[in-house]
Structures are given as structure tokens and as C-alpha cells.
Design brief:
By secondary structure, the chain is mostly helical. The chain has eight helices and no strands. The longest helix is centred in the N-terminal third of the chain and has 26 residues, at 42-67. The radius of gyration is 17 Å and the shape is globular.
Length: 198
């Protein structure tokens, strides 16, 4: 009889790697951009271009910083390197938002683009006190935007947020409080952005 060993750590690493913080915001940005500017496709391009360029900038800065020795890895877990990386991410989000505005992005998408800036700044502020989970914050924010602005059936994707939270706990990267705070912050910031039109 052939038995397959169920390796939970392998699954946890796979989830954490595949759903690293920049990925889901790019998918959500493209979906929301397309939905809000239908029937044309320019919203898809703006959503993908804006969120994608921010994600690429953040990933490039994380990798370059690790190679230059500014932090130990592209996803640092220590407080000081995380603060530096998040600070650079806030600057990158502001730069992308300003460039998109200058190039004529639709106002409705620019309003949502502030979400990335606001959420990253709040995660940076929370990191002063503790090691908030960027994975769950990013995932919850993305799923919230898709659910509220594209299709309410997107709420089923909160199961993915739960799976990502499990992976961060299983890998001992975060405590339950840090994972819950990340998910709660991502959800509340995006909900406020949509309903209060921040």
C-alpha cells in the first residue's frame, strides 16, 4: 500500500509564498478597476498597472535591500528591518498614486488607490507596537475590496484569508493576535474606504 505523508509545514510554506503580500492586491486592483469602469477595458489596465507597479516596486526594494544587507531577507521578521521596508513601501505607494494621477487615472480608481497608501501607513504604525501580519492584512484588504465592489459572492474567498492566517501561525511567524489584527485592519480600512469614500 502506498501512503502519502501529509506535510502541513510544506502546505504552510506554499500558502505563505504563493500569497505573499503584493500578490492579492494586484489581482484585486485589476478586478476592481475592470468592474468600476466597464464596459471599457481601460480600468483593468489602470488597476493592473497601478497595483502591479506598486507591487513590483515593493518586491524590488525588498530584494535589493536584502542583497545590500539592509535587512536579513526579502520578508524580514525583525521589527527594525520591517519598519524600514514598510516606510519605503509607503513612499512607493505615494509615488505610484501621484504618477497615476498625473497620467490621468480615473478618479474612482485614484480614490481606491489611496487605500494602499493608508493601509501600508497604518501597518507601519502598528509595527511600532508589534509584528502585525502583512500576509493577512493584504489578503483581507484585497478580498474585502473584491467583495464590496465587484461581487458579494467574493466573500467565500475569506476562506483563503483563513488559510493564509493558518499558514502564518503554523510557521510560527506570528501570534494569533498579530494575525487577527492584520486581518481586522485590512478589512476595516477597505470597508471604510468604500463606505465613507475616504
Amino acid at each position: 500500500m502506498i501512503t502519502v505523508e501529509y506535510d502541513r509545514t510544506w502546505w504552510a510554506r506554499l500558502l505563505s509564498t504563493c500569497f505573499a503580500p503584493p500578490l492579492l492586491p494586484v489581482v484585486a486592483g485589476a478586478a476592481v478597476g475592470w468592474h468600476l469602469t466597464r464596459p471599457g477595458h481601460y480600468g483593468l489596465l489602470w488597476g493592473l498597472g497601478g497595483s502591479g507597479s506598486w507591487a513590483v516596486l515593493c518586491a524590488a526594494l525588498a530584494i535589493a535591500g536584502a542583497r545590500l544587507g539592509w535587512w536579513p531577507s526579502p520578508v524580514p521578521s525583525q521589527r527594525r528591518p520591517r519598519l524600514m521596508l514598510l516606510g519605503v513601501s509607503v513612499i512607493a505607494a505615494a509615488a505610484v498614486w501621484l504618477v497615476c494621477g498625473h497620467l490621468g487615472a480615473p478618479p474612482v480608481l485614484l480614490a481606491l488607490g489611496r487605500t494602499a497608501l493608508l493601509l501600508t501607513a497604518l501597518v507601519l504604525a502598528c509595527t511600532w507596537a508589534g509584528n502585525i501580519s502583512l500576509h493577512t492584512s493584504s489578503a483581507a484588504a484585497s478580498i474585502t475590496l473584491v467583495t464590496l465592489l465587484v461581487d458579494v459572492r467574493g466573500a467565500v474567498l475569506y476562506l483563503l484569508v483563513a488559510a493564509i492566517a493558518w499558514s502564518r501561525l503554523h510557521l510560527r511567524a506570528h501570534t494569533p493576535a498579530q494575525v487577527l489584527l492584520g486581518a481586522g485592519l485590512g478589512t476595516s480600512v477597505c470597508t471604510a474606504t468604500v463606505y465613507l469614500q475616504l
